[in-house]
Amino acid sequence: MKTKTLVAALIFFVAPVLGTPAFAGLPTEPEDIRTGDDLAAACKPLVEHDVSEEGELAAKACSGFLGSMVQKVYEATESGRPTTFSRIGPKQETTLCFQLPDQLSFVDFAKLLLSYRAQHPELDDRPAYETGAWTLAVNFPCPKDKAP
Questions:
Q1: Contact 106/66 with Cβ under 8 angstroms?
Q2: Which residues are registered as beta bridge partners of 83?
Q3: 19: how many CB neighbours lie within 10 A of its CB?
Q4: Which of 11, 26, 55, 87 is the most buried (most CB within 10 A)?
Q5: Over the stretch 18-48, which tens digit does the pLDDT of each residue have?
Q6: To which H or E segment does residue 83 belong?
Q7: DSSP of 89-117
Q8: pLDDT tens digit string along 72-120?
Q9: CA separation for the pair 128, 16 (Å, rounded)
Q10: pLDDT score, position 145
Q11: Domain boundaries, the chain
């Protein structure tokens, strides 16, 4: 039930984003972040503490996207429980499981995301939330005894 709620929440969150027109330059709003490439472009200024006007707007977009993603997880998952993302991948064939840590700053999440993405270019054109989900699943996997 929680998995279905999470998938529904993500569809609600991602669907409007997919319909937005392409944006030239760095994403400046969370809604501008559609792909793994967009997410990385927005999060790089956050990690690098880019204080230019464009860098600050992109960093806010990254924080907003990551914050919305984590909020959807908290809304769909009982506190402290593992979270399952279903229908991930080009054929919606993958299920991922992760357990959020007690604390995870936007900057730390962005650093993990950029590190993971650098090794997985196949996510560049995939929906941005998939890059986030893979990053969380690799860095905070579900304990074997607590997996849903």
A1: yes
A2: 98
A3: 8
A4: 26
A5: 443 333 489 999 999 999 999 999 999 999 9
A6: strand 83-88
A7: STTS-EEEEE---S---HHHHHHHHHHHH
A8: 888 877 766 788 888 888 888 888 999 988 888 999 999 999 999 999 9
A9: 13
A10: 66
A11: 2-139
